[in-house]
Recover the amino acids of this structure.
């Protein structure tokens, strides 16, 4: 079988499919900086980060939480964070009693505070329990941040969310790759702001 650089599974094609979504994230640099600034202000006021997602994004949620609590970069300050997907007993107990769609929102109603940050991750933007949790967080006064894919789905269409970032690809593998890059950037810039309190004035975000 002949092989061509234009073959859909060629190395060139594999990288080309990833180029536009990554460049789109770079185009959102100011919005990302604004989200990080808002997150840093919440941490500065004693808030915590609460992360959640289904399936693959559930492991991303745990990844985000551990990086804030136990920074891989030596010398960076640990910041309070937890993943709502990490406790199997709670997740399955709530899902059994109140339903899967409320599994994250129910937990937020118990542990969420207005100073906190809610970060919801959904590959296609249509996860009902992630959307409901973000709505609950919004109603509690929490800062809401969403990572979605495709066209953003129902989550991007939800009113009142503070920051929504869309990995513009329908390939779930590429969406996940962009999400990993996005939350690593969030982690890094949050520390830039948090470690320099003079940058935490409301008007400073770039």
């Amino acid at each position: 079988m002949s092989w061509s650089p234009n073959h859909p599974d060629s190395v060139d094609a594999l990288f080309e499919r990833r180029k536009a979504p990554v460049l789109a994230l770079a185009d959102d640099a100011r919005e990302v900086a604004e989200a990080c600034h808002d997150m840093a202000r919440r941490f500065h006021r004693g808030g915590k980060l609460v992360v959640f997602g289904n399936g693959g994004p559930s492991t991303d949620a745990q990844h985000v939480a551990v990086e804030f609590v136990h920074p891989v970069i030596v010398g960076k300050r640990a910041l309070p964070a937890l993943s709502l997907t990490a406790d199997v007993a709670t997740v399955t107990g709530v899902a059994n009693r109140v339903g899967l769609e409320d599994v994250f929102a129910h937990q937020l109603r118990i542990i969420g505070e207005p100073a906190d940050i809610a970060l919801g991750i959904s590959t296609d933007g249509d996860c009902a329990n992630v959307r409901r949790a973000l709505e609950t967080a919004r109603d509690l006064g929490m800062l809401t941040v969403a990572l979605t894919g495709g066209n953003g789905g129902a989550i991007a269409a939800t009113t009142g969310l503070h920051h929504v970032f869309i990995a513009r690809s329908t390939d779930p593998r590429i969406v996940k790759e962009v999400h990993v890059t996005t939350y690593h950037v969030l982690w890094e810039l949050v520390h830039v702001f948090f470690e320099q309190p003079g940058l935490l004035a409301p008007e400073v975000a770039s």
Observations:
- Strands lie at 49-53, 81-83, 117-121, 143-149, 163-167.
- The first helix runs from residue 11 to 27.
- The chain has a mean pLDDT of 90.
